[in-house]
Amino acid sequence: MPFYVYILRMSDGRLYVGHSNNPPRRLAEHEQGKGCRTTGIFGAGDIVFVEEHPDRVSAARRERQMKGWTRAKKLALAAGNLSELHELAKRRA
Predict the structure, then answer these.
(1) The whole model's pTM is what?
(2) Contacts of 25 (CB under 8 A, 6+ apart)
(3) Which partner from 48, 61, 63, 75 sits 20 to 30 angstroms from 14, CA to CA?
């Protein structure tokens, strides 16, 4: 069963990274305030990026990686701007 890593832009503009086997259901949970404490406090918004993975382990690993990224890197990925993402990754090295 595939799992998905997603980036959610919350109602106040913050970015939330999570993973799920059903992103639309997970978004509904976030909107109802049941998704997690963060979206319950700051409000859910829209999913701006989804990436498919073959299993939960690889999705969770990617989620942890992306949670360590800067906001700029997350936005570049969500926009599909891979050249900017590459440049941002080089700056940190």
Answers:
(1) 0.90
(2) none
(3) 61
